[in-house]
Amino acid sequence: MQESLWMQLVNYFSDHGRAFFALGREHIQVSLLALLCSAWIGITLGYLTITYKRSEKWIVSLIQILRIVPSLAVLLLLIPLMGTGTKPALIALILLGVPPILMNTITGLNHIPLSVLESAQGAGMSDRQMMWKIKFPLAAPLILTGIKTAAIEIIASATLAAKIGAGGFGEIIFTGLGLNRMDLLLIGGGAVAILAIFIGVLLDISERILFRYQFLQR
């Protein structure tokens, strides 16, 4: 049985190698685009939330609601409005990726030591200078952690995008479910897992390079 499954895996890559890498390219493209949009929206909203404190309650409440709604439900709700394809899948993934980035941005900006801010004020820095030269650099490690969380969630959930015609490794998984083929389930699920782990490790290495001082203190 094990040998038969192994042969099925070998035969798949022999016959569908190009299709596999094409689906991988689609999965990475939609995930990367969703992550970039999520990072831009999350960090911008985080900045606005800190700058305009009155908006914090409303923005945080909205984000908490978005975290409760499953990405599959968002996909299904968008189909009547936007049809099928990459666009509704992209919006659903962006909605999924924004909350961890926004919440980590707010937390990072809110936890800057008061003594540091007082020193910056004493040096004559304006609010804008403090935001870009003090607050954002100090909050950057937490923001990157939020981006890492969002990246892994987006890559995993992009599998569902295949259900509405957006392509990606999800096509292999759903085909495997429909045909009850273990080899396709292993290939699709394994590819998504390996991609998520690879991105997680890549961001961990980036964190160690960009914020080396944190690891030197441990």
Quick recap:
With 218 residues, this protein is mostly helical. Helices cover 86% and strands 0% of the residues.
How would you describe this protein?
- The chain is mainly α.
- 86% of the residues lie in helices and 0% in strands.
- It is built from 9 helices and no strands.
- The protein has helices at 2-51, 56-68, 71-82, 86-110, 114-122, 127-161, 170-179, 182-210, 212-216.
- The longest helix has 50 residues, at 2-51.
- The radius of gyration is 21 Å and the shape is elongated.
Q: Which key terms come to mind for this protein?
A:
single chain, 218 residues, mainly alpha, elongated
Class computed from helices, strands and strand pairing: mainly alpha
Compute the number of helices: 9
Helix content: over 70%
- Rg value: 21 Å
Low-confidence stretches: none
List SSEs in N-to-C order: HHHHHHHHH
End-to-end gap: 49 Å
Instruction: Tell me the overall shape.
Output: elongated
Whole-number average pLDDT? 85
Task: Estimate what percentage of residues fall within beta strands.
Answer: under 5%
Main β-sheet description:
none
Number of strands: 0
